[in-house]
Every structure is written in C-alpha cells, then in structure tokens.
Hints:
mainly alpha, 10 helices, globular
Amino acid sequence: MPDAASWQLALPYLVAALLFGYLLGSIPFGLIITRLAGLGDVRKIGSGNIGATNVLRTGNKKLAALTLLGDALKGTVAVLIAGLYGRDMATAAGLGAFLGHLYPVWLRFRGGKGVATYLGVLVAIAWPGALIFAAVWLAVAFITRYSSLSALVAAIAVPTGLFLLDHSQAAWLFVLMSLIVFIKHRANISRLMSGTETRIGGKG
C-alpha cells in the first residue's frame, strides 16, 4: 500500500483531476441542446430532469440521442484525458464528471441523475462493464419499458460483473456511483412501487 508521504504528494493532483472531471461533467447538454433547438427549458416539462430520458419527452428523438451522447462523452473524455497521468487520476476524474452532472455549479447544483455519464465513465475505465450495463439495460427496458428500472438493475449488475472480472478498483468506484444512482432515483423507486412511474416514450 502507498505510504502517507506518497498520498500527500498525490493528493493535490487527485483533487485537480476530480475538479477537472467535475467541470466537464457540469456541462448541461440536455438544457443547452433543447434551448438551441428552440424548445425552451427542458426542466419545465416531464420530470424536470436535464437528462436524455426527459429530453425524449419533447418528442424529439434526435435531441434525446444528442443529449445522451453528450452526457456520456463528458465522462469518457474526462477519464481519457486524466488517464494520461495514471489510473488513479482517471478514477478521480471519472467520479468528478459523474458528480458534476448530478450537481452542476451552473444550475445551482441541480442536475440530472447521472446514468449516461455513469456509462461514459464506465466505457473509458472498464469497457467490459459497459457491455454488461448495455445488455442489462436493454433487456430490462425491452421487458418493462421503464428507463429508471433498467438503470437501477444495470447499476447493480455493473459492480457485480466488474468484481467477477477482477477489475477491483473499477468495481469499488462503481459501487459508490451505483449507490448514488439509487439515491438520485428515490422518487422513481417510489413511483415504481406504486405503479405510477412513466414508461419510456411517455409524456408524464
């Protein structure tokens, strides 16, 4: 294990990587894209979320796809750039990008639920985990048509799969991120349990 002196030397760089990732993650692509398209503030429709699922409720699939891509890529780019300086730096930047999407400074710390950025970080840090996520998400979405339930089940499958594949450092990162995903989906979980959750493509 690294000694205390090594951690003291590394800490400022890890904080810098976390902040770098956070600033990238804070870019609210859903809000920017819908405003540029003349659809106004996406936070005033549906769930009020800035993510791709809520953008889809505008009825524009292309804008939803662009939002999904932008939110994912900010996680991927943060990890790849910080990763040039080491694996720990990549991990810190990935966590920072995820937190930035959830709590963007530009929107008074009221962001999305982080699923697309979670996936983008996963692609760059442990791509086999991204395949697990995609397979589970698609299967659950096909069966139930609930985006939230698909994300929650995938968030359980990812760290489990990473541990089984012996990607322990990545697995622990995604244990933390998956826990946060569940916390951010508290309202969705309540609606799923009561049968009032909106299905994919729904307007509510």
